[in-house]
Amino acid sequence: MRIDIVTIFPDMFKAVLDESIIKRAQNKKKVKIYVHNLRDYTQDKHKKVDDRPFGGGPGMVMNAQPFFDAVESIKKKTRFKKNLTRVVLLSPKGRKLTQKVAMRYSHFKHIIMLCGHYEGIDNRVSDYLIDEEVSIGDYVLTGGELPAMVLLDSLVRLIPGVLGDKKSLIFESFQGNLLEYPQYTRPANYAGMKVPSVLLSGKHNDIESWRKKKSLEATRKKRPDLLKNKYFLRREK
Ligand code: ADE
Questions:
Q1: What confidence tens digit (pLDDT) does each residue in 51-64 have?
Q2: Out of 37, 75, 122, 231, which could bridge 64 as a Cys pair, Cβ 3.0 to 4.6 Å?
């Protein structure tokens, strides 16, 4: 998979790209990630990427031109094929990111993410340039950079071979519509707080039934809404 991110704050991405699973996925050549500075694509001689809104009103509006040129340039550099690529604008007006949405994106070969800033991105970007708008939740952030990192993380870990243990994908929270069962590690007794004895029993069938029961219990108690969604999320190769 290739991911291109277009932003006015490229440095914000350094920490996320250089650590942990995302770094490992790049080292293992499972994903190539390129961060582009939107200002490199502006035709304005002062590198400006915004202007006053037509019709008046507060704040500035990001110009369409640098976004169009950035996407055009990325498409030229890659062997762009419409059905293998998704151009996504991160915006609170978008469709809400869920595990199901992440799963769908993880099948594309190429994702181009555009980071806007809320009180203004020329609407021709969402009308004519992008395939989809994605929101990470019903709250407004100062820009699309943190949401792009969230989307990036949710996608990269779904690429086959990125996580070491395939089972950990299948049984984790949301993957099968249930929350994850409780996990414990050593010591078995920490300051009087004991690990459920079934987990120390070595009886694999009992452990499996206990985990299923706990998953269901946790989902009913904490997220009963998940039990109503009938989608099935196992990723197929
Ligand atoms: N930009 C600002 N707020 C956002 C949100 N909640 N999701 C995606 N992009 C955003």
A1: 999 999 999 999 99
A2: 122
